Amino acid sequence: MQLAGGDALTHYMAFGWHEGRDPNALFDTSFYLERNTDVADAGMNPMEHYLLFDVEEDRDPSLTFDGSAYLGNYADVVSAGVNPLLHYLQFGMSEGRGIFAV
Question: Source organism's superkingdom (predicted)?
């Protein structure tokens, strides 16, 4: 989705999450906010929260992606200390790595 003056991720970060939209197939905005009421109560952007705190807090972005299982299967990702979903989207998918449902 290309938008005038921006891209889909920029739109999601500013507006889409308020509208209940999902930035991709593996991050479910409604699921994340329903499962993490502290994030919803704080009015924080769910994807921003996930990207900033998931490595320490171990929260799943959707029913279709289990970050703990992904890390449990790929020690190199653990060693890199990166967010599991971000790693999968940037590298893991093209490398043929598997994903694990919650």
Answer: Bacteria
DSSP conformation letters of 24-56:
BTTB-HHHHHHH-HHHHHHT--HHHHHHHHHHH
What is the pTM (predicted TM-score) of this model? 0.87
Residue with tokens 């994903």: 99
Domain range spanning residue 52? 24-95
**Looking at the domain assignment, is residue 6 inside a domain?**
no
Residue 89, domain member (yes or no): yes
In a domain, 101, yes or no: no
Name the amino acid, one letter, at 1.
Answer: M
CB contact at 8 A, 40 and 18: no
**Domain tally, the chain:** 1
- pLDDT bracket for residue 13 (50, 70, 90): very high
Cα angle value 71/31/14 (rounded, 5°)? 95
Q: Are the beta carbons of 40 and 76 closer than 8 angstroms? A: no
